[in-house]
Amino acid sequence: MRTGLLFPGQGSQHVGMGRGLAESFEEAHDTFAEADEILGFPLSQIAWEGPDEELTATENAQPALYVHSIAAFRVAQSLLGTLVGAAGHSLGELTAHAAAGSYTFADGLRTVRRRGELMASASEVAAGTMAAVLGLEAEVVHDLCCNAEARGHVVVPANFNAPGQVVLSGDTEGVAWAAQEARERGARRVVQLRVAGAFHSPLMRPAVAEFEAALAGVAFGWPDFPIVANVTAEAVEEPTAVPGLLARQLTSPVRWVECVESLVGMGVGRLVELGPGRVLTNLCRRSAKGVAALAVGTPESISLLEGNT
Fold it and tell me: Which residues are tagged catalytic?
């Protein structure tokens, strides 16, 4: 089976994430224990017991997602078949590089934690938010953002998640204005995202230089399989290209529809989402029609994967 891997981003976290996997599989238990030791605090306890507001904090949510996804990957690895490539949504792109061996689990975890801290700090400098607009074409959403900019706001299309689903990111008042305009233009729904800042927007610029410095201290190698970059929607393997793409990602839109199309173009027979929830699996129904998609992050889902090997 030719498999493409998908790794979720911030917003997929929930209290209890990964606990069942860790209780059922030694590989998952050891992954969470290793993460606690590397970080020097009980990330596993935050992921498994909360409280929700502590887990949702950007500096905790990102490493928790990373660890759960890698735990699922390690448990499922022998069942995944031939790995053709991978893509990760925002934070998930860093997880994909860890799964592919672009850097060590420890280096990736430290980098993800630093990324979360810097993004949280940038959010304190300029408060912002994100909202998903469902049922409008990308061109209409782009027009809304231009109108918001003309009114003095910072609002941009941050995630192109699926046909008819675009996420707005920017200052809180501007996103609220654009969201109301979207409803008036016929949007089916506008959903506020569970994130603490205006990610993938110009409001993240304060984080870029320090994140570049953090990436400069990481040893990148050739991956076991190509990773599709959010910024370009193209597969990347050359180690020297990765840090720049990950840094640009902070202020650039996630071209998720194109990322999935790139994976499908590699000839995958199925797409497997590794980590909490099934957000990316659900999006595949619209952007990867005809390709089977599975969400793997619980003991029960491992059993389903065994039946689809």
Answer: 90, 200
The CA-based dihedral angle spanning residues 49, 54, 131, 5, taken in that order and rounded to the nearest 10 degrees:
-60
Residue 297: closest CA among 76, 50, 23: 76
In which element (H, E) is residue 227 found?
A: strand 227-228
Q: Does pTM surpass 0.90?
A: yes
Q: In the beta sheet, which residues pair with residue 262?
A: none
Residue 50 has phi, psi (to 5 degrees) of 75, -150
CA distances from 165 to 132, 190, 233 (A): 7, 10, 17
Please list, in sequence order, all residues whose beta carbon lies within 8 angstroms of the beta carbon of residue 286, skipping any fewer than 6 positions away. 162, 163, 164, 165
pLDDT digits (tens, 9 = 90+) for 263-281: 999 999 999 999 999 999 9
Q: What fold characterizes domain 2-124+203-306?
A: Malonyl-Coenzyme A Acyl Carrier Protein; domain 2 (3.40.366)
Are the CB atoms for 189 and 114 separated by under 8 Å? Answer: no
pLDDT digit string, tens, across residues 75-127: 999 999 999 999 999 999 999 999 999 999 999 999 999 999 999 999 999 88
Please name every residue paired with 74 in a beta bridge, in sequence order, or none if there are none: none
Domain ranges across the chain: 2-124+203-306, 128-196
Q: Residues with Cβ < 8 Å from 300, sequence gap 6 or more?
A: none
